[in-house]
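Lab meeting notes turned into a lecture example. A postdoc, R.K., suggested we walk through two folding results consecutively so the class can see how the record format repeats. The first protein's sequence and structure tokens come next.
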Amino acid sequence: MFNNLIESSSHAREYKRRGSFLLFTTGVYAVLLVLGGVASIYAYDAHLEAQNLEIVMLLPPQEIVPEPERPVATQPDRPRDTSHNDPGVTERVTAMLSVNHPESVPDIISTTPNKNLPLPERGPYAITGRDRNAGSPEGPGSPIGGGRQIAPPAQLVTLPDPPPPAPPKPPPVISKGVITGLAVSLPRPIYPELAKRMRVQGTVAVQVLVDESGRVISAKAVSGSPFLTTEAQKAALQARFSPTRLGEQPVKVSGVITYNFVLNN
């Protein structure tokens, strides 16, 4: 009986020692876990300075329904007017000739320089309201109401007929002074009866103009009695002269014919 009691007391101390060791070990591990947790908190870098304060809202996905295709409106094909888009036709704003045509006088003369191009010397051209040389690409049109401005149809312009040549200058008039002795035919004037009764006599000078054929076309008395000048002028208009030439060109001659009126005693 005592042997069993002694043996029981030894087992109690062993259990007590093991319990104390287990309790101590558990306490040590608990302290180490607490210290490790505290150390990890201080060692963690949260990067607060780089945090983004934007609020992100997550929306549920929505189903995307494709839009129905709209029918494309087709326009009927229209015949294109290519007369003014022909690269071989030169286009101009106005029908203006170049400076190589001095015979054509412009209607309006201004000191402002003209910025329009002249008509070409050769090749077809059209007046369309713009300047474009043959072979150059077509420029963009001006949008009007969402569309494109179409130039007016080409209009061929024919150059006016050149003016008739200037009339030849009238031949010069040669003045020869007294030409009484050069006359081929010199009729004598009639002595007026009134001048005879009044015993009027003297010399009458008549200024005449002879044409290219030698005929007197005008006669005017420049001196003498007025009672004798009328008959002297009539006689001068009937005079004839030889044609006068200046080189190969016939000319007019201006001169004076003198008539002496003398009464017979």
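The second example is placed directly after the first for contrast:
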Amino acid sequence: MRDTNGVAAQPIGFKSELLRPTTGEEAHRVTYIELFFDLVFVFAITQISHILIHQPSGTALVHTLVLTLVVWWAWVYTTWATSWLNPERGWVRALMLVLMVLGMLMSSAIPEAFTSRALLFAIALVALHLTRSVFTVFVFARRHPDHAVNFVRITIWHAAAGTFWIWGALAPEDQRLWIWLAALVIDYAGPRARFWVPGLRASSLDTWNVSGEHMAERVSLFLIIALGESIIVTGVTFSTGEISWLNGLAFLAAFVSTVLMWLLYFNHGQRRGSDYIAKAAERGMIAQTAFSYVPLLLILGIVLTAVADELVLHEPLGKTNVWTAGLLCGASAVYLLGNALFKRATGSPWLFSHLVAIPTLAIAFAAHPLISPLVLSWITNGVLLVVVIFDEGDARRAGN
């Protein structure tokens, strides 16, 4: 390729190969730098769960949902990128470390994201997205121009959403939530619209052919992070309270709920999902639905369960208020819905046990004035246990 003076034009992009190999163990392996990167999101999940713990209100619940959406999307976009990029290469490692710094800044601002630290939160978030997508454009530019154009589209969408994130941070506090909701709509609509841009059109599904095994394992590790946060909340709360048989039962109920959530996803669903995407011819849409959008419900269910368990540990007896009952039953229902959608998106039929359990939890919520928080906690655990038993039976009948 030559410019107007007949001089050979220099191609843009990195000269060295920074992409994962397409075959062998390294094509799918989760690297240590990726696990190191995840530590930032341990911090982020902790920050989010503590908002509801310290501010039990409807406004705080909405803020928690918005911030969970933001944190999950920042993490999942990076996971998509590292399904192509090779984290063992120096430049990619440097990128991951820069993203960690930006992620730490974003996470540190979470408790005051809607108040005094809104601008820090927004700038760190937008910088994280743009840094990752622009870097990936240059990685693909020399050898895979179609993929590079795809990340140009993604960069444009990030810039469009970023305008709303910054605008919301600068706007009055009573307007901030609405502007940031518009930013979230742009962020979450991008993949479904295949990042359509005027003049560039929509991206081809061929450019989304990620490593299915890598994507499945990364999402599983993030769920472990969220479950770990639930255990930390339970352990810290129990360690600072009185030692009594009531607190012991509340502690056991909280621990059992975490175990049951782990079983619901990891006992059979995770393996089936990983095998399904690994064998699929077109992995892009499966990865988008089953490993990008749907896991958000699982994360929300875990975070809300951790908050509910802390409330039960603080006051196991007495009348159950609407807030505690809503968190206990709602969190389990959201988690079950996420499991049902995940399994459906990875080739399983609709699971009767999951779908029946959700209205059962609604009945338990309606009965909350008659029972104590501790009893309601064990009832929700009982519903989850029944689903786990049915799930085991379904797996055995299917030969898994």
